Amino acid sequence: MKRYLIPLLVFLVLVGFLAVGLNLKPREIPSPLVGKPAPAFSLPTLAAPDQSLSTQDLRGKVWVLNVWASWCVACREEHALMVEMAKLKVVPIYGLNYKDKRDDALAWLNQFGNPYATSLSDTEGLVGIDYGVYGVPETFVIDKAGVIRHKIIGPVTPATVRDVLLPLVAKLNS
Amino acid sequence: MAEIMRMALGTALGLVMLAAASLAAHAKDALPMSADPALEARVMAVAEELRCLVCQNETIAASQADLAVDLRKQIRIKLQQGQSEVQILDFMVARYGEFVRYRPALNAGTVLLWVGPFALLAVAGAVLMMNIRQRRWLGAAPPPLNEAERQRLNALLGEADTAGASRP
Prior knowledge:
- The structure holds two protein chains of two kinds.
- Chain A is α/β, with parallel strands linked by helices.
- Chain A has one domain (34-173): 3-Layer(aba) Sandwich (Glutaredoxin), CATH 3.40.30.
- Chain A is built from five helices and seven strands; from the N terminus they run αβββαβαβαββα.
- In chain A, strands 5-4-3-6-7 form a five-stranded mixed β-sheet. In chain A, strands 1-2 form a two-stranded antiparallel sheet.
- In chain A, a hairpin with a 5-residue loop joins β6 (138-142) and β7.
- Chain B is mainly α.
- Chain B has three domains: 1-30; 32-105, Cytochrome C biogenesis protein (Helicase, Ruva Protein, domain 3); 111-166, no CATH class.
- Helix content of chain B is 69%, strand content 0%.
- Chain B has helices at 2-29, 37-48, 66-80, 85-96, 111-139, 147-166.
- In chain B, α2 (37-48) crosses α3.
- The longest helix of chain B is centred in the C-terminal third of the chain and has 29 residues, at 111-139.
- Chain B starts with a helix and ends with a helix.
């Protein structure tokens, strides 16, 4: 009996590890920036490149930073959801137009709708590096004090908007 | 003399070919390159220490992902500004997390990663040793028979004897 018990236990432990491993998301690396002040930037807006917007201008309100690009396929997937979320008018969404061409970006917004309070042009991707962006789209929630409270890597889903984003915004606003 | 000349020539030719090959390989994976090869070597040394988060199992030095190209550019700029290698690694870790290090630092969070395989090896070794000892003990001389066993053995041998003797 004992002969079979030990291999069985070892097997079960192995199955346990593999089951946990299968459910991990190796592409979603926890950001060290959550809980830290959002890196400061001052960038030209997409609509009017001669105007700029800085993190300082956004102090005192809860806002969402959505990193997007016209070349990004997954951004298209989540975009309708961003448009829906903007319609709720519970939180302003600022777009970080990451490593994109201005004409392409403007055409993309024309075609799919513009949920953004303002989009900022990060042509060189330097602000993206400051925010630890590695998989567009990415979405950050930033509180009134300018601290990053949450980061979503990859496209947001209706479930994340309903269960994570909106409750968090409500909590930060209260 | 001619032999030595031929060998030297062969070696020189080999070196030239090797240099050409490595140059070609470099030209392919690190664009845009600065003119300074010493700086470029330092850039690549730092890039070897960093993981490309887009393609996770490659270093920034080896990867062709856009982000890796951008980060190599950042490393180059920072080195030109006079920042040290350690400062640049800290910059990357502050933005992308500990995972960006291709060789994770030894700390409380990664101690299992570093020590785990050796601990497993030690456990496996201990189990193996116990097994071998047990087997050796089993293989040694069997314990002496007690009285009942001896009588039974004699009876069996006696039977064999009589059976053999009775045969013609």
